[in-house]
Amino acid sequence: MLIYQILMALALPVWLVVAALRGGLAERLGHVPPPAGPGPRLWLHGASNGELTSARWLVERVVAARPGVQVLVTANSATGRAMAAGWGLPGVVAAFAPLDTAGAPGRVLDLWEPQALVVIENELWPSRLAAADRRGVPVLLVGARMSARSAARWGRLGGLMRQVLGRLTWVSAQDAGSLARLRALGLPAEAAGPVVALKAVGADAAPDLPFPPPAPRARTFLAASTHEGEEEIALDGFLAARGCFDHLIIAPRHPRRAAEVAAMLQARGVEFVQRSKGQVPAPGCPVHLADTMGEMAAWYAMAGACLVGGTFAPRGGHTPWEPARAGSAILHGPDVANNAAPFARLDAGGGALRLARGEDLGAALRGLDAPAQAALAAAARQLLAPEGDEVQVVAAVLAALDGRTSAAE
Question: One of 51, 230, 231, 390 is an active-site residue; which one?
Answer without folding.
Answer: 51
